[in-house]
Amino acid sequence: MTKIKTQTISPQNENILIRLKRVESQFGYIPEESITEVAQSLDLPVSEIYGVATFYSFLATKPLGRNVIWVCQNLPCHLKHAEITIDNLERTLGIKPGETTSDNKFSLELTNCIGACDYAPAMLINRDLHGNLTPNKISQILKLYK
Amino acid sequence: MIFDKIRKQAIAEWATLQQSQQPRILLGTATCGRAAGAMSTLEIMNQELARHNIDAIVTQVGCIGLCYIEPLVDIVKPNRPRICYSSVTPKIIPQLIEDYLIKDNPRPDLALGTIGDGTIEGIPRLLDLPMLKPQVRIVLRNCGHINPEDIKQYIANDGYIGFIKAINMGPERVLGEIKKSELRGRGGAGFPTGQKWEFCRRSPGKEKYIICNADEGDPGAFMNRALLESDPHSVLEGMLIGAYTIGATHGYIYCRAEYPLAIERLSIALNQMREYGLLGDNILGANFSFDMEIKEGAGAFICGEETALMASIEGKRGMPRPRPPFPAVSGLWGKPTNINNAETWANVALILQKGSEWYDGFGSQTSKGTKTFALVGKIERTGLIEVPLGIHLRDIIYEIGGGIADGKQYKAVQTGGPSGGCLPASLLDSPVDYDSLVKAGSMMGSGGMVIADEDTCMVDFARFFLSFSQAESCGKCVPCRIGTHQMFAILERITRGEGKLRDIEQLEQLSQLVKTTSLCGLGQTAPNPVQTTLRYFRDEYEAHINKKKCPSLVCTRLINYYILPGKCAGCMLCLRDCPAKAIVGGRRLVHIISQEKCTKCGACLDVCPERFGAVVKVSGEKVIVPSKPIPVATSKALKNKG
Q1: Does any domain span residue A4?
Q2: How many domains, chain A?
Q3: CB-based burial label for B572 (10 Å; 0-12, 13-18, 19+)
Q4: Do A78 and A51 share a structural domain?
Q5: Percent of chain A, pLDDT > 90?
Q6: Confidence band (pLDDT; 50, 70, 90) for B380?
Q7: Is B219 in contact with B417 (CB distance < 8 Å)?
Q8: Which residue in chain B is spatially nearest to A51 when comparing CA positions?
Q9: C-alpha to C-alpha distances, B70 to B74, B88, B369, B381, nearest whole angstrom
Q10: CATH code, domain carrying A83
Q11: Partner residue opposite B31 with nearest CB, options A17, A76, A129
Q12: In B537-570, which residue ranges form alpha helices assigned H by DSSP?
């Protein structure tokens, strides 16, 4: 992958969302203490920071597993039997959506459309897209993650 | 001028590449190709090329839209037309390399079509194929043909000459050109782009912003993903032209986090633009300084709404606010801001490159140009298409899409995702343009088309869109937050068979209320799927409510599985396969499904051999079955007697 240079071009860039994303990339989620810290440093109420942290579904306010599975539950996937995929993941991992496996390997989350309707039913594991899912394929895919 | 030199060099390099005496291989590695296994194909391909000592030029390109038969590999041999091969799995690629590159057998059995001059026996021309013939690919012209990570390939294909023309014309004339083209916003609402730009250009203020809305989130839509991954510069050139015309100094591309490859390719593209002097101070020597950056979303559908999107860039919760003031007057950080969808920006570059008169040749009276659509759901050929506006739905679904999957009957198409509505078979011959779709109760939307077949329950269909809207509602205004929630609850009730007589009326009233009183587009359009299904498929609602019947046999609470005593052979297959252990029976005994234990997974129906056809799925009716397993012969005899 090409190394990407990030450019900061406007002073307003130092905002709540950017700060929270930074916290998340450091800890893997946004701990409560960090919310307080961000609030103090930006001189804003904690509620404001907490509001942002819980607004976005890709920001986690609780620890997640090493790999996060985002399985699409919306219509185009539903028309291709996404419920079988979800059911299969639940049974294979032994967890329900919103939970993390006891070995901390996987977290299972449901999401509303990941723009992979051409490969429905589909899921994202971390940033990798897996589509045209079948029970067989799922067990092979899960083996790829450590 | 420096750009002239760059352009000449890019064109020369492109020509050398086209006339290369080495074989060339183009592989589609956009997200869709990767999901189909293109990276494994690439790996094996490189190994095979090395093994045979073949010095080939391998280029990774974007997506030409034929998602249903990826991975796609194109091979060009000197003085031959380019051949496009579909479904090239790692298993096939060694054969293909050996047969075509070494033995010179073009393998017509594996080929999809040829591109360019000349013919090859047994292989049709790609553009003559039914899925491509009705398409007009002008916005997607480069997709699948150039390397999206190489700015020079874009420049060699007339890239950035639209921008050069713009700086020679001056902002006023560019604005005139965009207005003359009658380009309308491709994000869905169809607002005239030129007018939008004019508001922002005339707004007082030195600091102005432009934004590319690439927060594509409609279920069923992935047009922007494919465009940004396959030809990012076409969008960025449009933004450059817009910034110059409006007088903006900074630009943002707001792209959803679910599209990591699009973000990566955009980053590469922006760096290359800086390297070539297309961003920064005094761009190409003109009195125009501009830079832009990518803002990654964080998983909130509402951020596709312009005021919510701006709040998100500012780092706040992505919540919309009332308009006016419109972004053109007070947008990002209170400064005049112009937001357009990624596809709109790509159209801008094209209009400047080719001229508004040329552009006028595409589309209908009120909707000029083309539109990209994503075909998904129960359609034979899923994929990304580009068609002139005004084309009939029937042509999209039956010609390009190849009709309904598995030979089933068409029921409806949902355009515009959760903001749009569904269109029944009676509207298949209506044109696809902004105004006709609104008239039919739907809208253009960003371009997702979800196709439903006879096996799709339209109440369930509407329920899914409402489940989406109520989950993605930001919660700021009451009609949307509570209204969509209540509508969803009623739809859930109906699909569970607990619908009441007044539910339809209540849905209609709520729809009207949410539509007219919500703060932003999400709430104002969320009732559309309910209103159109009520308008065109009211009988399905009535069957659910009055007869407790799901005519399409979808809603699990309203369906039952039975084993027909006269047909069951007592083979025990279903008994063994039932995950709920809901079937009783034995060898040569008629099996019985316990309706209390049955989870309605349908495993028994799938496993029952076709020659018996003993398992049936019914809704709203009962099948008489024996109270306990009886010998098969007895039941046959009973049937014969009866």
Answers
A1: no
A2: 2
A3: middle
A4: no
A5: 74
A6: very high
A7: yes
A8: B317
A9: 11, 7, 28, 11
A10: 3.40.30.10
A11: A129
A12: 538-546
The predicted-structure confidence for B232-262, as pLDDT tens digits, reads as follows 999 999 999 999 999 999 999 999 999 999 9
* pLDDT tens digits, one per residue of B51-72: 999 999 999 999 999 999 999 9
Q: How far is B171 from chain A (nearest CA, A)?
A: 24
- Confidence label for B633 from pLDDT (cuts 50, 70 and 90): confident
Q: How far apart are CA B369 and CA B349, in angstroms?
A: 13
**Based on the domain organization, do A41 and A96 belong to the same domain?**
no
Q: Which residue has the tokens 């991954």?
A: B229
Nearest CA-CA distance, residue A102 and chain B, Å: 25
A11 confidence band (pLDDT: 50, 70, 90):
very low
Using alpha carbons, select from B119, B157, B124 the residue that is nearest to residue B18: B157
With an 8 Å Cβ cutoff, is A49 touching chain B?
no
| CATH class of the structural domain B160-359 | alpha beta
On whether both A124 and A78 belong to a single domain, the answer is: yes
CATH 1.20.1260.10 fits domain B559-640:
no
Distance CA B78, CA B70 (A): 25
State whether A51 and A76 are in the same domain.
no
Tokens linked to B343: 């596809």
Q: Is residue A6 part of a domain?
A: no
Q: Mean pLDDT over residues B66-84, rounded?
A: 95
* B505 has a pLDDT exceeding 90: yes
The model's pTM is: 0.93
State how far residue A100 is from chain B, nearest Cα, in angstroms: 20
Crossing angle for the helix pair A135-143 and A82-93, to the nearest 10 degrees: 50
Domain span holding position A82: 67-143
The CA–CA distances, whole Å, from B572 to B237, B561, B586, B591, B631 equal 65, 16, 6, 8, 13
Determine the average pLDDT of the residues in B326-350.
97
Asked if pLDDT for residue A82 goes beyond 50, the answer is yes
Based on the fold, state whether residues A29 and A49 are members of the same structural domain.
yes
Q: Sign of the CA dihedral A111, A113, A119, A124?
A: negative
In the predicted model, what is the mean pLDDT of residues B380-384?
95
Does some domain include residue A1? no
Distance CA B623, CA B554 (A): 18
Q: Which amino acid is at B166?
A: A
B250–A9 CB contact, under 8 Å: yes
Q: Are residues A72 and A115 in the same domain?
A: yes
3-class DSSP state of B489: helix
Question: Is residue A84 in a domain?
Answer: yes
How are beta strands B24-28 and B57-61 bridged, if at all? parallel
Test the B interface: residue of A13, A15, A17 with most B CBs within 10 Å: A17
The string of DSSP letters for B248-311 reads -SEEEEEE-TT-HHHHHHHHHHHHHHHHTTSSBSSGGGSS--BEEEEEE--S-GGGGSHHHHHH
Give the pLDDT confidence of B141-195 residue by residue, as tens digits: 999 999 999 999 999 999 999 999 999 999 999 999 999 999 999 998 899 999 9
* Closest residue by Cα to residue B132 from B85, B216, B66, B181: B66
Give B-chain residues touching A88 at CB under 8 angstroms.
none
In terms of Cα–Cα distance, which of B173, B87, B554, B211 is closest to B351?
A: B173
At a CB cut-off of 8 Å and minimum separation 6, what does B287 contact? none
B314 → chain A, closest CA residue: A15
The pLDDT of residue A9 is above 80: no
Q: Are A9 and B291 an interchain contact pair (Cβ–Cβ within 8 Å)?
A: yes
Tokens of B599: 């989870």
Number of H-type helices and E-type strands within chain A: 6, 4
Fold topology of B17-128: Glutaredoxin (3.40.30)
Q: How is residue B550 written in tokens?
A: 């799901």
Q: Is the domain B370-456 a CATH 3.10.20.600 member?
A: yes
| pLDDT per residue as tens digits for the range B473-497 | 999 999 999 999 999 999 999 999 9
